Amino acid sequence: MQGALRPLGRSPKSEGMKRPILIHPDPRLKKVCDPVTDLSDELRVLADDMLETMYDAPGIGLAAPQVGVMHRLIVLDCVKEEGEAPRPTVMFNPEILAVSDDLNTYEEGCLSIPEQYADVTRPAEVRVGWIDQNGTPQERDFDGLWATCVQHEIDHLNGKLFIDYLKPLKRQMITRKMQKLKRERARA
Ligand code: K1U
Ligand code: ZN
Asked: Does 153 qualify as catalytic in the annotation?
């Protein structure tokens, strides 16, 4: 074998280890998460693990409560183009500082609600502030899929799921499907 050895189960895009993703309904997905006050090594490892988990799923974002950790941490990488360099982004305490009047509708999915998709309308552009992995404050404007995804992930930190934007009947239908999926997975 030639070249550097990479432990099995790790993606070339991150150094972390995969964690199990909680499936809706779960009380932890309905809670408001706590701010990060100390950027500990444990939280840096969690960020790497979340990136690994997201790339493996595959997904374009992941929030800490989806892996059962109730802190305000999200990861995302919305690079879609084949051959374009990945842009793993880690945000501690992300905050939406401004939103556009323009709206955008996107058919959203969620790794905690597998194989269910629905249109959600949100501000087309958002300004977000956060603390990065080095503890440095950052501020940036997002549009397109990045804007949709960062809003979806920040919603997770506030106990909100994309199905909470849907009509009650549709939401109930999806929740029942997920209850069935969880029963089947528990039996397997
Ligand atoms: O938070 C999550 O559950 C992740 C979710 C993020 C998201 C998707 C779509 C709109 C807004 C936010 C996902 O990544 S679902 C999977 C997905 O959308 C996808 C997977 C592979 C390639 C491209 C997209
Ligand atoms: Zn989600």
From this structure: yes
